[in-house]
Specification:
- There is one protein chain.
- By secondary structure, this protein is α/β, with parallel strands linked by helices.
- It contains seven helices and eight strands.
- The protein has a six-stranded parallel sheet, sandwiched between helices. The protein has a two-stranded parallel ribbon with strand order 5-7.
- Helix 4 links the parallel strand 3 and strand 4.
- The relative contact order is 0.15.
């Protein structure tokens, strides 16, 4: 997989942070995939006005370190209560990347860093992770899933603390009567993971995800 390149200079003070996680064994820069395409669109439009990063789903600790680096606006190597409270963080992902979305949010909870929004698209729980219970440092969370394929996402997420986290919805998507084209995917994926990659390729789903994220970037 290609190594990640981070922009270390000229970061906008207080700019919102968007972290995306790719699913399966997908590279962070594989533009076939909807989650990677969304990150590219946000980068093009917002530039330095939003710090958008894309990671493979096994790079959760690297993503956590990057979030802390971006929040450390005075560059003293530690996060002050003010730097933490100023955080505007959105995390999203597909499949294993959706599971890693919640794992990162939970890791940031241990650092006492708030998360504005988590988005899970056809979330498939990774070993030793819990992608169902949304930690209380998350203000809002939403879940999109399909239930028809051999590989399908979690149907229900819930707030660990309903007084602190709003679940925007668990939205089931069906492709029985409205198949989605998945150009560029392998024969194996199109045969054995058809619905799982349809939701990943569905412009309607990613349009809704993008609208939710954009609302947090204003």
């Amino acid at each position: 997989m290609a190594s990640l390149v981070f922009l270390c200079a000229g970061l906008a003070r207080g700019a919102p942070i968007v972290i995306g996680f790719a699913g399966g064994f997908v590279a962070h820069d594989n533009s076939i995939h909807g989650e990677v395409q969304l990150a590219a669109r946000l980068r093009r439009e917002f530039g330095a006005g939003a710090q958008v990063r894309m990671f493979e789903n096994h790079r959760g600790e690297q993503a956590r370190r990057e979030v802390i680096r971006l929040l450390d606006t005075d560059r003293d190597g530690t996060l002050s209560p003010q730097e933490k409270s100023a955080a505007r963080i959105v995390i999203y992902g597909h499949s294993w990347g959706a599971s890693e979305t919640i794992a990162l949010a939970r890791s940031l909870a241990r650092d006492q860093i708030p998360v504005a929004l988590t988005v899970q698209v056809d979330s498939v729980e990774k070993p030793f992770e819990d992608d169902a219970s949304i930690p209380p440092n998350v203000a809002q969370a939403v879940n999109y899933y399909q239930a028809e394929g051999f590989l399908h996402g979690r149907a229900l997420i819930h707030a660990a603390d309903r007084s602190r986290t709003q679940i925007l919805g668990n939205f089931r998507i069906s492709y029985k009567d409205k198949p989605v084209s998945c150009p560029g995917y392998s024969w194996f994926a199109r045969t054995f993971m058809k619905q799982h990659i349809e939701i990943e390729s569905d412009p309607a789903v990613w349009g809704q995800v993008e609208s939710l994220i954009r609302a947090k970037l204003k």
